C-alpha cells in the first residue's frame, strides 16, 4: 500500500478503522452497547482477519445518534428503529426534492 492509498483510507467515512474498544470510547459508551446495536441490526461492523469487530466513522455517527436516544430514556430497540426511520425519511425527502427539481426543469422547457 502506498502512502496515498493509506491517506485515502483515512478520509473514507466507510473504512473500518476503529476497534470495538476505541469505537466505544469515542462515542462514550461500552462495547456491550455496540454489540447490542449490531444485534438490533442498526450497524453491522466489518470483521478483521482475526474476527474482531471494526467500525467506520459513518457507523460511529449512527451509533452516537442511537446512544443519544437511549440516554434520553428510550429502549435500545426503539432507538435503533427511530434512527432507521429518520434515515429513510431523509432519503425519501432527498429523492422528492430531486424529482421536484427535475419536474421543474422539464416544465421550463418550451413545448415541442
UniProtKB/TrEMBL annotation:
Q: Which organism is it from?
A: Murinocardiopsis flavida
Instruction: Tell me which SMART domains the record gives.
Output: HTH_MERR
What is any Pfam family matched here?
MerR_1
What the entry lists under InterPro entries is as follows:
DNA-bd_dom_put_sf (IPR009061), MerR-type_HTH_dom (IPR000551)
The molecular function GO annotations come to: DNA binding
Q: What is this protein called?
A: MerR-like DNA binding protein
Q: HTH merR-type domain: which residues?
A: 17-85
Q: Might you name a Gene Ontology BP term for this protein? A: regulation of DNA-templated transcription
**UniProt signal peptide:** none
Amino acid at each position: 500500500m502506498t502512502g496515498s492509498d493509506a491517506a485515502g483510507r483515512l478520509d473514507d467515512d466507510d473504512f473500518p478503522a476503529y476497534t470495538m474498544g476505541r469505537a466505544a470510547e469515542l462515542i462514550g459508551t461500552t462495547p456491550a452497547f455496540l454489540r447490542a446495536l449490531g444485534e438490533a441490526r442498526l450497524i453491522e461492523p466489518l470483521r478483521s482477519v482475526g474476527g474482531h469487530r471494526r467500525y467506520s466513522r459513518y457507523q460511529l455517527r449512527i451509533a452516537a445518534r442511537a446512544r443519544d436516544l437511549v440516554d434520553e430514556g428510550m429502549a435500545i430497540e426503539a432507538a435503533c428503529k427511530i434512527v432507521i426511520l429518520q434515515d429513510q425519511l431523509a432519503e425519501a425527502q432527498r429523492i422528492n426534492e430531486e424529482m421536484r427539481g427535475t419536474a421543474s426543469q422539464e416544465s421550463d422547457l418550451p413545448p415541442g
